[in-house]
Write a structure and sequence with these properties.
The relative contact order is 0.12. The chain is extended and about 50 Å long. 45% of the residues lie in helices and 11% in strands. The chain is mostly helical and 121 residues long. The longest helix is centred in the C-terminal third of the chain and has 20 residues. The chain has two domains: 77 residues, no CATH class; 31 residues. It has a three-stranded parallel beta sheet with strand order 1-2-3.
Length: 121
Amino acid sequence: MTARTLEDAGISTVVLGSALDILEKAGTPRIVFNDLPLGNPVGKPFDRAMQMRSIEAALRLLYSAEVGGTVETLPHRWSQQEDWRRNFLEVRPEHQAQLLSLGEENRKQRLENKRLGLFRP
């Protein structure tokens, strides 16, 4: 929605994303789509070559696309196998205790940060 607002003001935008259905439904004017897990729209962590290809594609699209509604799909792959789609962010019963512990630890740290003034109002 921010991209549409900027476009209405005459500022061209490109959104790098990995949830094409959501981006299209939101009416995003220009999209560079990476079919990767959510949270990784530019590429794999620490894979600078993949990330640079994504950014370069976004800049090319910004300069070349004259109308909104343009989607460029990049050929990047998360892995050679597609099983990551079934397992990505899956919470299994055997991990429940560990995840609950990590969540409690995170809450304690956030409270301590707040006590120390390390938070945004």
